[in-house]
Design a protein that fits this description.
About 50% of the residues lie in helices and about 10% in strands. With about 650 residues, it is of the alpha/beta class. Strand 1, helix 1 and strand 2 form a beta-alpha-beta unit.
Length: about 650
């Protein structure tokens, strides 16, 4: 049997190095074609014949390769015939245009010098082995005992390549608005966040600040070994998802760079949205659904083998524990994801779980196995850095917003929340004015999205149109939040016209359900906090129109557990109508009173009980009610806190 044919496609400047590569491939048992061999007759005929007979094509790319008509013909004809193409990087050059489309998604090998080419040679030969249809008989017999090892190695490299491509394409930009062209490169807009490790969780036993997001990956547990479970907790909009995306993006950039840093300890990285994982999905199911392409070269078994063999070098980022059904975590019989969360599976992998603070308790006894990292958004200094980056083309606007924040302490505090600061920047760019409260900020931001869409579509706007859309969205949002914490909906959950308008405005997002067994569209709100705002809008309207229905919703979330899961919803509702606040606050007071009395019975008002009352004061501030109106509700049990809030209202 003839050895398989390997074709080397190159531009003339690379000929001497490619001739050396040709000799090495021949030694390895391959038949190699270059355009120095028997080139009599029509050149195009000889090249096309070589492409057609080739089992694999090595494309030695460079700037001159991209400009060469002959090279373009060879590469594109090979791609048309679905020949496997292995890129070889001849110089420091990033392909664009036709060559970028062909080469950039593929794993390349560095042949910029003779030395680097010889270092990469074993990998090149291994890749050729995987891609060719027939191997030389003598080579096959000498490697028979290593077939499974070689196959796994190839699968691993394919896995890395597909992960890197996804993260570079999907995580490399930040879309400011869910529609339009408002996209900024991740590297351009990202600003360091404020992170700290809980003292009781760190190996040193003291509170520990983290300078960069990726420094979490170097944390040590109580034993001094690398932490295997890290819990990243932060309030709504504090930047948890962006931080996770930044880690994935930087890992992809760092892969095969040779640079030693926090990322180099991990050969595999998987970032998954917990809310998109079905109850019966395994880890590999979720990876295949959410990350790898539909035409992935990996089977489910290949993926499982890669993870098992490299579990110590695997980083798993699980985003949105607060969006994961609570009942799944409380089951005694659990699936893959629950076992990972409970540290019963892949214990030697590093797993980072992001959540809102109120869902930490859902981990139950397992939370003690995590290093707890608190994400507090931006520092005051980095608020200014972000604003200057956002308004990089208009420093006058940047200085104006920074000055306005300095004159408004309560909004300045909100500006430390990344999603709030983004909204502030968008609003400032439009009107150069600031809202007064958390609720007012969302009100203006949602209205901004709506009006900008209507203007872009050249639609004459009416206030009634906007109110009707919000009320419809709010009813669906509220029913979802107060029944089973539903965050993903189907198209028929909304009136058709409302769905169309809300998607165009960016208040809702529509995407194909990732499960390969389900072909329907899923609908979700732009952000969980936007769903909470819309839900509060509808709920607050009932305080005037249907008090009985208002109270029935309040009863749904009036128990001890639900209150803490719905803090943002309750805060928004209190901020929209004083009447709604006057109905909510006395009811919630009973919940907090019960908790405090229980703490006293056990042995005094604990730090937890003391901390639990702060959401109540947030709601009070948002409502705008005078302190003397609620004096009788709060002061009997929390007199010291009432005095503290009166003296320092900015603490809210």
């Amino acid at each position: 049997m003839d050895p398989p044919l390997v074709m080397i496609s190159y531009q003339w400047d690379a000929q001497q190095r490619m001739l050396k590569l040709k000799d090495e491939l021949i030694k390895a048992g391959y038949k190699v074609w270059m355009d120095v061999d028997k080139m009599q007759g029509n050149l195009d005929d000889r090249m096309s014949e070589a492409v057609e007979k080739a089992s694999v094509i090595l494309a030695c790319f460079s700037s001159k390769y991209q400009m060469s008509t002959s090279c373009k013909k060879e590469a594109q004809y090979g791609d048309y015939l679905k020949k496997p193409i292995i890129p070889l990087k001849y110089e420091e050059y990033q392909p664009t245009g036709w060559l970028g489309l062909l080469i950039n998604p593929l794993l390349y090998y560095d042949v910029q010098t003779d030395e680097t080419m010889m270092q990469e040679l074993p990998k090149i030969i291994k890749d050729v082995e995987q891609k060719i249809s027939v191997r030389h008989e003598d080579l096959a017999s000498s490697l028979t005992s290593h077939v499974s090892i070689r196959s796994t190695s190839v699968d691993f490299e394919v896995c890395q390549q597909e992960l890197r491509t996804f993260y570079q394409q999907e995580m490399g930009t930040v879309q400011l608005l869910p529609w339009g062209d408002d996209v900024i490169d991740m590297d351009t807009i990202f600003v360091n966040l404020t992170l700290a490790v809980d003292g009781k969780q760190s190996s040193g036993g003291s509170r520990e600040d983290i300078e960069r997001v990726e420094d979490m990956l170097g944390l040590k547990g109580r034993t001094g070994q690398r932490a295997s479970r890290i819990l990243l907790r932060g309030f709504a909009g504090s930047g948890k998802s962006t931080a996770m995306a930044k880690i994935a993006y930087d890992w992809a950039k760092n892969l095969d760079s040779g640079v030693s840093n926090m990322f180099s300890q991990f050969k595999l990285l998987f970032i998954l949205s917990l809310r998109e994982i079905e109850s019966n999905e395994t880890l590999t199911d979720a990876i295949l659904d959410q990350i790898l392409p539909q035409d992935t070269k990996l089977s489910k078994q290949d993926l499982e083998d890669c993870i098992k063999l490299h579990s110590k070098e695997t980083l798993i980022l699980l985003d949105g524990l607060d969006e994961y059904p609570m009942e799944r975590l409380q089951k005694k019989v659990t699936g893959d994801i629950e076992s990972i969360l409970a540290n019963k599976k892949l214990r030697d992998a590093c797993v980072v779980v992001a959540t809102r603070p109120e869902k930490v308790e859902d981990l139950g006894e397992h939370q003690k196995q995590y290093i707890h990292v608190k994400l507090s958004g931006f520092s005051e200094e980095n608020v200014e850095v972000y604003i200057k980056k956002f308004f990089q083309d208009s420093q006058t606007k940047a200085k104006g917003l920074i000055k306005a924040l300095g004159q408004s302490p309560s909004i300045k505090v909100l500006a430390q929340i990344p999603v709030m600061l983004l909204m502030l920047c968008l609003l400032w760019s439009d009107a150069q004015k600031l809202p007064d409260t958390h609720t007012a900020l969302y009100e203006q931001a949602v209205l901004y999205l709506w009006k900008r869409y209507r203007r872009s579509a050249d639609i004459t706007d009416k206030d009634d149109d906007f109110e009707e859309v919000l009320l419809h969205l709010g009813r669906v949002a509220l029913d979802g939040l107060t029944s089973d914490g539903k965050l993903i909906f189907l198209e028929n959950d909304f009136p058709a016209q409302v769905l169309e308008e809300a998607c165009k405005a960016g208040l809702l997002t529509k995407e194909r359900l990732r499960s390969k067994l389900n072909v329907c569209n899923s609908i979700s709100f732009l952000h969980k906090s936007v769903q909470e705002y819309c839900a509060a809008y509808f709920w607050a309207s009932l305080a005037d129109n249907d008090v009985d229905l208002f109270k029935s919703y309040l009863q749904r979330i009036g128990d001890d557990l639900q209150v803490f899961a719905q803090v943002e919803l309750l805060t928004f509702c209190c901020g929209m109508k004083k009447k709604a606040a006057s109905l909510i606050l006395p009811q919630l007071m009973q919940v907090f009173k019960h908790r405090t009395e229980e703490s006293v019975r056990i042995g005094g008002i604990t730090q937890t009980a003391d901390k639990d009352i702060w959401p109540l004061f947030r709601m009070l501030r948002e409502s705008g009610l005078k302190y003397d109106i609620v004096h009788s509700w709060f002061e009997p049990l929390f007199q010291s806190k009432v005095v503290e809030i009166r003296q320092n209202p900015h603490l809210l």
